[in-house]
């Protein structure tokens, strides 16, 4: 439980970053207090510590760009959010939310998006309507290869900025919308035991279960433990890799300046846990990862082509794969349940939450 919800849009992160000096986090905070300098009591994080001790902690995971939740989730499905790569007036990429409701294909006519250009120039309400055709996503790559996938979300429509496929035209108006968008998100807790898990799954929580600051809730670690336990106790465990990652830094202080690979970022470092019967036990990966690292590993596992070139903004080509966190020569480790404060039944029976997921 952390208060308050600190500013964490792209402009905020660039101020805190301060050209790599990481010394202006004190510019934000409730009533001038230095709330960015905070930590969570370890007793509330026992499931996360247990996972890190028994599996992998990725100590250097960075989002694709300085930015908030929407762009974080977008790059977790596409490895990019680049709108235009031409030298004039681009290149440019999504930087922040749209100026209309939903941030999706269902947004009001005339809705514009915020873009970032070279030299961290950010312009609001100048970008295209948020129903994108400008870049590819893993949906089309997986579909073309016949690899099944699902995206678990609180509700299929108007789920907000944690549901990026709502803003991808080919998904929003295609067959995947009816078959692969799964609501509520708690179905991830029952699908494994019902032989209904896809080859690739993205899982997003409800706001109360999300670890989001300002919630006055300690449900997040137990939610993650429940997802891991549901898969771990199923026949899928022997061939699973579970990557737990947070979409942005939340506005909180970090001493590690993110490496700068292009005009978008990398953004502020985020936590990442990797759980698998093949994960190295108690391993702290020193490798520089980015969100494209997850997609690159996905490509390696299923023999998929890259989404696109680095020159066109895609990051799964340039990124280091997370493969170094695994030892595929070892015998698959048997699963041991992750202890947590709240049991899986708490979330299975949890009423749906219509609370907006984030203001940032």
The CATH class label is Alpha Beta
User: Which CATH architecture would you pick?
Assistant: 3-Layer(aba) Sandwich
β-sheet strand percentage: 5-15%
- In CATH terms, what is the fold-level topology? Alkaline Phosphatase, subunit A
- How would you characterize the largest beta sheet? 4 strands, mixed
CATH superfamily: Alkaline Phosphatase, subunit A
Number of strands: 13
The number of helical elements comes to: 9
Biggest sheet: strands side by side, in what order?
10-11-1-12
For the termini, the CA-CA separation is: 18 Å
**Average pLDDT taken over every residue:** 93
Query: Structural class given helices, strands, pairing?
Result: alpha/beta
- Coarse morphology: globular
Task: Give the number of domains.
Answer: 1
Based on CA atoms alone, the radius of gyration comes out at 19 Å
Q: Can you write the helix and strand succession as a string?
A: HHEEHEEEEHEHHEEHEEEEHH
Low-pLDDT runs: none
Q: State the helicity in percent bands.
A: 10-25%
Explain how this protein is built.
This protein is α/β, with parallel strands linked by helices and 360 residues long. It has a single domain, classed as Alkaline Phosphatase, subunit A (3-Layer(aba) Sandwich), CATH 3.40.720.10. It contains 9 helices and 13 strands. It has helices at 10-17, 46-54, 69-78, 138-145, 169-172, 176-179, 220-232, 291-302, 344-348; strands at residues 56-58, 61-62, 82-84, 92-96, 113-117, 121-127, 149-152, 181-182, 200-203, 242-245, 272-275, 283-285, 289-290. The strands form 4 sheets. Strands 10-11-1-12 form a 4-stranded mixed sheet, covered by helices on one side. A 4-stranded antiparallel sheet has the order 3-4-5-6, with no helix packed on it. A 3-stranded parallel sheet has the order 8-7-9. Strand 3 (82-84) and strand 4 (92-96) form a beta hairpin. The longest helix is centred in the middle third of the chain and has 13 residues, at 220-232. The model has no long low-confidence stretch (mean pLDDT 93).
């Amino acid at each position: 439980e952390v208060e308050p919800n600190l500013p964490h849009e792209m402009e905020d992160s660039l101020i805190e970053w301060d050209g790599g000096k990481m010394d202006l986090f004190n510019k934000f905070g409730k009533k001038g207090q230095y709330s960015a300098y905070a930590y969570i009591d370890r007793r509330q994080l026992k499931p996360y510590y247990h996972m890190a001790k028994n599996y992998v902690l990725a100590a250097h995971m960075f989002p694709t760009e300085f930015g908030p939740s929407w762009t974080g989730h977008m790059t977790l499905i596409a490895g990019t959010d680049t709108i235009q790569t031409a030298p004039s007036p681009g290149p440019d990429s999504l930087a922040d939310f749209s100026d209309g409701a939903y941030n999706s294909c269902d947004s009001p006519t005339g809705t514009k998006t915020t873009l970032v250009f070279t030299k961290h120039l950010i312009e609001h309400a100048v970008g295209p309507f948020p129903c994108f055709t400008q870049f590819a996503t893993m949906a089309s790559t997986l579909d073309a290869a016949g690899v099944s996938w699902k995206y678990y979300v609180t509700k299929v429509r108007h789920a907000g900025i944690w549901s990026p496929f709502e803003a991808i035209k080919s998904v929003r108006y295609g067959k995947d919308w009816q078959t692969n968008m799964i609501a509520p998100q708690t179905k991830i807790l029952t699908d494994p035991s019902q032989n209904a898990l896809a080859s690739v799954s993205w899982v997003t929580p409800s706001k109360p279960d999300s670890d989001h600051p300002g919630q006055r809730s300690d449900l997040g670690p137990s939610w993650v433990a429940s997802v891991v336990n549901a898969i771990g106790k199923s026949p899928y465990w022997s061939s699973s890799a579970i990557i737990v990652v947070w979409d942005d830094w939340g506005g909180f202080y970090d001493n590690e300046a993110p490496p700068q690979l292009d005009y978008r970022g990398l953004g502020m470092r985020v936590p990442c846990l990797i759980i698998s019967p093949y994960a190295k036990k108690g391993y702290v990966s020193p490798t520089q990862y980015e969100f494209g690292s997850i997609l690159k590993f996905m490509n390696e596992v299923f023999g998929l082509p890259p989404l696109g070139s680095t020159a066109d903004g895609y990051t799964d080509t340039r990124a280091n794969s997370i493969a170094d966190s695994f030892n595929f020569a070892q015998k698959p480790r048997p699963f041991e349940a992750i202890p947590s404060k709240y049991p899986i039944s708490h979330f299975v029976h949890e009423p749906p939450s219509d609370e907006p997921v984030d203001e940032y």
